[in-house]
Amino acid sequence: MSDKKFNQPLGGNEMPRFHGPGTMFRLPSEKTAAGLDMAIIGVGLDIGTSNRNGTRFGPRQIRAESSMVRPYGMATQAAPFDSFQIADVGDVPLNTFNLLKSIDIIEDFFTDVLSHNAKPITLGGDHTISLPILRALHKKHGKKLALVHVDAHADINDNMFGEKIAHGTIFRRAVEEGLVDGNKMVQIGLRTTGYSADDFEWTREQGGRVVPAEECWHKSLTPLMAEVREQIGADTPVYLTFDIDGLDPSVAPGTGTPEPGGLSSIQGIEIIRGCYGLNLVGCDLVEVSPPYDSTGNTALLAANLVFEMLCSFPGCIRRS
Fold first, then answer.
1. Which listed site, 25, 35, 206, 268, has its alpha carbon 20 to 30 Å from 199?
2. In terms of Cα–Cα distance, which of 275, 269, 278 is closest to 305?
3. How does pLDDT run across 51-110, given as a tens digit for each residue?
4. pTM for the complete prediction?
5. What is the mean pLDDT of the chain?
6. Alpha-carbon distances of 11 from 5, 21, 91, 100, 166, rounded to whole Å
7. Strands in the chain per DSSP E
8. Which one, of 224, 272, 236, lies nearest residue 146 by Cα?
9. Are 46 and 54 in contact (CB under 8 A)?
């Protein structure tokens, strides 16, 4: 048991889950990341989307549904709130009328968070937000990052409607800018239809691994993640980016570009738990769009996936 006094989520027996602060896990809120090991950040961007918008409301609903998440992982015995000082540092003040200005604002915000040596845990927001976060992380670590990317889409278009930056282009930009090591880039859950037969080949040409959803059907992904850990190694800084549309719409309908035949919620959890042992330096959970799931179950699942992310960072205590 750690002797350190870390922030703890407000428990359901202390305050009804439908009351209390609107922060992630009902943790304390802070104005800056000073003194934190991890900073939870909302980035409600949705002007980089190509289909249905609404992800601007994602962070707020994920936070609301996170009141159901308890502080210990019963299967893994992980205890993130006994391991790290974690707080919610609020939302990035975006320019809702200008995507490129918002990209700069996001990068500056995360640069400040990283200046305090806090690791960012991000609630999206559309997937465009990963690019400025990776830019800030690259400046912090001074080297290319490995990438574990869960998604229905590769997000490696060269442009969309002539634009170089949108939610479907960012990982091509990240590799081109030297932010991500193509040899240590793994994309899991890609699927359905494309514009050409070689839509996923760009990733492979950079040395990356593509694991289509069909290779994941009807099986545990625990063995896959053992291979991923071997490929990336224990020392390389790793960014985990999880697009909720990587999961099947039957479990995550609240998203802008749903695709059938996706991963199960169990497989999503296996992927995140399988990142334990990697040198995670940040992660995001993106593309939750509350208007398309009135039950709130997509955001509830997202909140639980974020908890699993906390459990997978280096140094998280396992009680067993």
1. 268
2. 269
3. 899 999 999 999 999 999 999 999 999 999 999 999 999 999 999 999 999 999 999 999
4. 0.96
5. 95
6. 16, 11, 23, 40, 39
7. 38-43, 86-91, 119-124, 145-150, 180-190, 209-212, 237-243, 279-286
8. 236
9. yes
